[in-house]
Structure formats: C-alpha cells, structure tokens
Predict the 3D structure of the following.
Amino acid sequence: MKNHYDVMIIGGGMVGLTLACALARSRLQVAVIEAHELTDVNKHDDYELRVSAINRASQQIFSNLNAWQGIQSRRLSPYQKMHVWDSTGDGVIDFDAADLGVDMLGHIIENKVVQLALIEQLKTSSNIDWLCPLSVESIQYADNKSTIKLDDGNEITTALLVGADGASSRVREAAGIEIEKAPYHQKGVVCVVKSSKHHQQTAWQRFLPTGPLAFLPLSDGRCSIVWSATDEEADRLVSLDEDAFCRELEQAFEYALGQVESVGPRAAFPLVRRHAKNYIKPGLALIGDAAHTIHPLAGQGANLGILDAASLAQVILEADLQGREISSYATLRKFERWRRGENTLMMYSMSGFKNLFSNEQTGLTMVRNLGLNLVNKVIPVKHKFMRHAMGLEGDLPEIAKTIGW
Ligand SMILES: Cc1cc2nc3c(=O)[nH]c(=O)nc-3n(C[C@H](O)[C@H](O)[C@H](O)COP(=O)(O)OP(=O)(O)OC[C@H]3O[C@@H](n4cnc5c(N)ncnc54)[C@H](O)[C@@H]3O)c2cc1C
C-alpha cells in the first residue's frame, strides 16, 4: 500500500473493478479498496443469488480486458432468445439473436464470477494495488487531494477519488452530492428454481400487474428468477414455505416452463430509482450504482455501470496522454456529459415501462398489448430495440466496440 495514488477507487464490485482493469498498463498509480473478500467458485457450489444479464457491450469490454476467459472458465449461460408477454392480454414479443445474425443476445453470469475474473486480471498489473478486505472508515473530500482513512488505521491520499461503492455510496455522501430518489414501491424476489421443462437458452419475462417476473437461464438447466412485486407481496412471497412458493410461482408464470419442482434460498431487494444530481466534482467521480440505480426489468443496471467505468477510463487515459490534469473539472465534465445523457434515457425508459405494465386500465392494457404485437411485427423497430438492449447502439466507449483494444 502506498501513501498516495493518482486514482483511488472505493468499491471492488463489477463496476469499480472494470475501471481499475481499464487503467492497467497506464503510468497511473491506482488502488481499489474493497470491504469483502470473495472465495472462488467451485463447480459444485450452488449459484449465487446475484446474477446479471451481461450484454454484448459489457462482454466486449471484458474480452478487451482479458477477463472474459476467466468468466468462461468458471460458469456462464448464453441466451439466444427472449420471450416477453403480458398477463392481461395477448401481447407478445420475441427476440432472437439469429435475426441479427449473431449467436447470442447476452449471458447470464453471477456477479461474483465477473468480479473474480476481473480481480485475476487486476493482480497481473503492477500499477494497481488491490486493497481487500479493507473498509473505508472516513473520507475527507478535497478538490486537489482527498484523504481516506481505512479500518486498519492507515490514511491514504488521492488526486482522483472514484465512488464505485454501490447504491449507499459513502463517497457520494462525503462529497455532498445529492440524489434524486424515487422508490418503485417494489422489491425484487430472487432465487434459483428448477422447472420441469428446460429453459431452452431463453430469457423469459411475464408482465404481471404487480410487477414483472423473469426466468433467466443458468448453465445447469435451472433458472435464476427475479420476481418484482409490491413490497408487501414480496415479503409474503419470501415467507411462504417452499411448496406454496413453487405453486404460486408456476401459476404466476403460466406454467411456461412447466411445474416448478424446487427452489433455493430466497431474498428480496428493495427497488429504487436513484440518480445523483452530479456524477463529478473536481477530483471526484461516481460510477455504477453509486451514480444511478434502475428497475431490473430490462437487466441494464450493471451494464450501464460497466459503460460508465469504461467511459471514465477513456476520458482519464486521453487526458493523461495529452498531458492534461486527469482529476480536473474540465476533464471529468466530459465523462459526466457523456454518461449522464445515456443513463437518463435508459432510466426514464425503464420507469415508463414499469408504469405502463403495472397499469390495469382497460384502454391502456389494450394499447399496451397492441403495441407489443406491433413492435414484434415491425422488424426494423424490433431490431432497434434489440441492438439497444445488447449495447450495440448509443455513444459507446472505444473498448466496448473495438476488438483488440
Ligand atoms: C434483483 C436485481 C436484479 C438485477 N439484475 C440485473 C441484470 O440482469 N443486469 C444488469 O445489468 N444489472 C442488474 N441489476 C443491477 C446490478 O446488480 C447493479 O447495477 C450492479 O451490481 C452495480 O454494481 P456496482 O459495482 O456499481 O455496485 P455493487 O455491486 O453494489 O458494488 C459495490 C462494492 O463496493 C463495496 N463497498 C461499499 N462500501 C464500501 C466501503 N465503505 N469500503 C470498502 N468497500 C465498500 C461493496 O462491498 C461492493 O463490493 C440487478 C439488480 C437487482 C437488485
């Protein structure tokens, strides 16, 4: 551990680790501080509750960071199709990778697997220190040199402090950055289930008036589910005994994958839309959930954060190459302008979808079902949706589009 770093990243989740790896092999001295140490996954371990649908842009970033191999060698589940339908009508939409001439839409991967693969890469870089398990006890933000006190008593300073410390970011708080917060009044119930029919490498989502229910395919034939429901309903679902939960789940899912035969441990995460009023201050930047959280219905939260990390790295590396200050407001403002627009668009789309699908007014359900069926048939519009969800559209950082970055 050094006394001073050019860049100090608080939080070694998927997002903070992506930034660290993207700054590898630069002349910058970088540290990542993470409170929780991870144990490697063993083939026989059960799946983690926290999984993410990782899109093509994130995959490209991980490939260019040499972390994709580490993900593949552990476990992942590609999905070629997505089937979405409405419980209150006949609205259906199907997405198929083959329509775009690609072999898959994305992969379902445990968050921990992504982290492990990135940590492996980070450890090969001489300019990055992995400080784990260590917790940040206090942060004194200053525009030219912030000071971090760690729980082992050490104090470190940095020119650029990056908050990648998740939704309850201490960095954001220490910098006095406000957030706009709007609870969705839903929780996401997550667990791993075994159904009598195979998932067919398809991501399934049924929109119920109480919230969307997603079945995401895992490599052993089981599914990781995210059942978004009102707070009270979610608490009730978690407290049901195993058999009662399976019966309610198969019914809510219209037996699309047959009967639900077994279920693993369940947990419920409160779903809240948060957006930091600023992503930056001189000498400070927020990325990932520290800057924004959105509804998981389109599986985009982590993907947006990974793009934040890749974009911030690009801005920092460009500034350093041109001899400009990496932590100045002018440098960081470029990152903020870039990512805020992209994230805002996705956040409002998700809120719109959530509100549209949780409304049971007759006129609206008709329009909604018509809309779904229309998008399903109008191929250019459908392809546009697909390309956006896959991270193939928008203002992407170079590392997300270039092979061999
Ligand atoms: C139910 C559910 C389903 C989801 N599904 C998807 C999906 O399919 N696709 C998708 O793209 N996204 C999905 N998301 C969103 C995704 O999980 C998050 O956006 C993503 O994990 C955020 O990553 P992060 O690295 O920014 O934050 P986090 O994963 O929260 O990581 C923050 C890290 O910082 C560390 N930390 C925090 N404070 C300190 C401190 N003081 N000192 C040291 N370390 C600290 C923590 O230990 C943690 O490791 C889902 C979310 C939910 C709730």
